[in-house]
Amino acid sequence: xxxxxxxxxxxxxxxxxxxxxxxxxxxxxxxxxxxxxxxxxxxxxxxxxxxxxxxxxxxxxxxxxxxxxxxxxxxxxxxxxxxxxxxxxxxxxxxxxxxxxxxxxxxxxxxxxxxxxxxxxxxxxxxxxxxxxxxxxxxxxxxxxxxxxxxxxxxxxxxxxxxxxxxxxxxxxxxxxxxxxxxxxxxxxxxxxxxxxxxxx
Length: 201
Known about the structure:
Elements: H1 2-33, H2 37-49, H3 53-66, H4 71-83, H5 87-100, H6 105-117, H7 121-134, H8 139-151, H9 155-168, H10 173-185
Helix pairs in contact: 2-3, 3-4, 4-5, 4-6, 5-6, 6-7, 6-8, 7-8, 8-9, 8-10, 9-10
């Protein structure tokens, strides 16, 4: 009788253990049969291009969950959250990415822009300055650092970075606009028009 009870207890324990492990087992099967992180990223980017941000973020989040060490995937997610006007989520994603890889320039560019757009100017200056220290010919960082410095009233720094950005990308009008804004903020009214004055043929 005692032997039968022991067998029943053993059987009940095995069944309970199986039921507890079943979700994990099924989850592993789903991952092996489901989409890869790269496929999720591609689909997420397609949704982002269509401005279907909730769907894009959902898929890009799944991609990050499958490949948490894929820095590019994290940057894509953070930038998509930024475009979806989710500043806190974007900041969280990009800051976490920074802690994983503090030398990734695309992530620093994205994080600096998120800080700038949300008027976190000291953070924007620090982030873009670090990006420039890593990659001095980083036009994006110089341009956005110019905008941040202008808002802080540091007009000489704003002018300096706008000039560097305009030299790095001479066909891009945005650094010239930043340069004009910096001169205007400094009270130098004639200079903003100079970058646009082309000699007549």
